[in-house]
Design brief:
TIM Barrel, alpha/beta, DSD1 family PLP-dependent enzyme (chains A, B), homodimer, nine-stranded mixed beta sheet, about 375 residues, about 20% strand
């Protein structure tokens, strides 16, 4: 339905030729990030199932799987369908689906790929079982536990009863796969000690949940969760068997502001917005990228490697640059200059774009190596 | 490049069948808004050129034009190209373009449609003239004046000199069309008196700019600008000849919080997110719509006609509902219930979606009348 008049860039184009604003991936940095996380998971004998809600791109998911990931997570059914249509065969919808019409599609999808889903209610399990009953296929079911996020998930004490419910529907194709235990709010606590404490608490809640499952006579095969801000702590806990981090691949301003965790792999910024100065005042410059180009739910972007410039909100289509408090107006870029921005939050920024331009050789003189479709862009249902 | 697996709804579908989350337009409300603004412009003998950056949809632009609008504004070249490709023939890019490669496309587009553009620099005029020179067509050029927004636009004292520059390039096809004078920051000052004062000040700056144009011996055909929060004041000024309001058609939570201006037409909320409760806690409910479904640059959504519920940020794909301070937990919707949200800001919310589902007969029992493509979704370049 989308009718973009702009021809996307082609492999071989110089980075200088990219029209602004453009969402650009530094391929060299991304591949180092990819390898560092794959190495970390391998060294810690943990499964890695990166969250594809970040990139929504089957080509990138395939690179992650080729490097050792067991599959990917998604957050929505339509995301799973889009990635399955593009060739991804092992998907975990790490979220609840309650609509019978959608659950029918979940069951259909479970017949085509290895599929898992999260549940946190008796109604959800019953409806899932009803949908699966007639499909004749199997689905892995994770009971989601609220381990501090305060969003979805049952209380730890209720996990065993819900696992029993799942097991009771084994004949419908439901296979109890373990616990979904993700603490989203822990990811951006700025000090490593705060994040460690939050995951320590999450682990105690997940262990309590696991105990109720065991007490119900059910084997709990796996605890899955963790994000880019906290995964070293989940890994150290001995409890989680699978890591779901996603942002590590591209990174963003928000994660860059975290104090690194001791011993954590270093991830480089790999996602950028190429923008251009389209207006200059005496004490400010205006670039052609606003919050229709980068998401600002986690704050504004920064200018890459330019601490002498600050960005303020210029609306949907503009960003306004000022000299930082210690800098003079001389540092402002001139009319027509290119300005590289680091988005505040990678996931919803990628979701604004139809493609990712992957560049080899850096931002100043790189060449487009490939253009990736954001296959599941806008797939919110 | 977009491969949505979800079949969009079809005309005739009942609103109950729409999968969540869905972006829904109440057609009855929208058409009343459309008519009220058209009537206002007609009664005040003003040109109406609604800003299509809000809906990015050619079908809606055609309805506006059929009701009397002279054409539409857009904010980006690629938006203009997308709407031109879908049949819109009178477009104003109310923004600066400085890249020669884009200006070549501006010139090409000017050969296919009636096109106008804004400028605020000598370099911009020179590059535009260079691009137009070889195209052999004409373009209307508005000198943008900063009337309080602090973003793009020349100082009022510099308008005459830039208009002279435009006129000097008449042989290249540049036609000085007047002044672009839009005060974005005035739109959401909450009291009508504050907005009136801001536009009063903007008018004094625009008049000063106009005087420098006249002093340069140049006729200033038109002052164009105004938004949904302020247009009654621009209309009353006797200075502006064209109104660019866009949000009036759909409205949003942010505009609803404005104190109405005296004598202003009343615009109804016409844009909604249909969402569903996918998880329930003892004291909160979680819906399946987060900030990948609605933009939060102007704050969170509210629940339509439910002042007993509050919405907090649940991340990319979740919204969290709590009882309002005066309400009990009994008011929370149940698992599976439908919840209608009013987005904080209509423009970037529409830009997240590939289509708008237009429903006749209200939210409780309406029927899909049409599904509109968001033709220029993601067109940021």
């Amino acid at each position: 339905m989308n009718k973009h008049p702009c021809t996307p860039p082609a492999p071989g184009d110089n980075i200088a030729a990219l029209l602004t604003p453009a969402l650009v991936v530094d391929l060299d940095a991304m591949q180092r990030n990819l390898q560092r996380m794959a190495d970390f998971a391998r060294q810690h004998r943990l499964r890695l199932r990166p969250h594809a809600k970040m990139h929504k791109c089957a080509a990138i998911a395939k690179l992650q799987i080729a490097a050792g990931a067991v599959g990917v997570c998604v957050q929505k059914l339509s995301e799973a369908e889009a990635l399955a249509a593009a060739g991804i065969t092992d998907l975990f919808i790490s979220n609840e689906v309650i609509d019978p019409a959608k659950l029918t599609r979940v069951a259909e999808l479970a017949g085509r790929v290895t599929l898992a889903i999260a549940v946190d209610s008796k109604l959800g399990v019953e409806r899932l079982a009803l949908a699966m009953q007639s499909a004749g296929s199997q689905i892995d079911v994770f009971v989601e536990v609220d381990v501090g996020q305060g969003r979805c998930g049952v209380a730890p004490t209720a996990a065993g009863a819900l696992a029993q419910q799942v097991v009771a529907h084994a004949s419908a194709g439901l296979r109890f796969a373990g616990l979904q235990a993700y603490h989203g709010r822990a990811q951006h606590l700025r000090s490593a000690a705060e994040r460690e404490a939050a995951i320590h608490h999450a682990a105690s809640l997940a262990r309590a949940a696991q105990a109720t499952v065991t007490a119900a006579g059910i084997h709990c095969p796996l605890v899955t969760g963790a994000g880019t801000g906290s995964f070293t702590f989940e890994a150290a806990s001995g409890l989680w068997g699978e890591l779901q981090a996603g942002s590590y691949l591209f990174m963003d301003r928000d994660y860059a502001e975290n104090q690194p965790a001791p011993g954590a792999p270093v991830f480089e910024q790999a996602l950028f917005i190429k923008s251009q100065v389209i207006s200059r005042g005496e004490a400010h410059a205006v670039v052609d990228a606003g919050h229709k180009t980068y998401a600002i739910d986690s704050g504004l972007p920064t200018v890459w490697q330019r601490s002498d410039l600050t960005v303020t909100n210029g609306g949907d289509e503009h960003g306004i640059l000022h000299p930082a408090p210690h800098a003079s107006a001389d540092v402002l870029p001139q009319l027509g200059d290119i300005v590289w921005l680091v988005p505040g939050h990678c996931d919803p920024t990628v979701n604004l774009h139809d493609h990712l331009v992957a560049v080899r050789g850096g931002l100043s003189d790189g060449v487009v190596e490939t253009v990736w479709a954001v296959d599941a862009r806008g797939c919110v249902s």
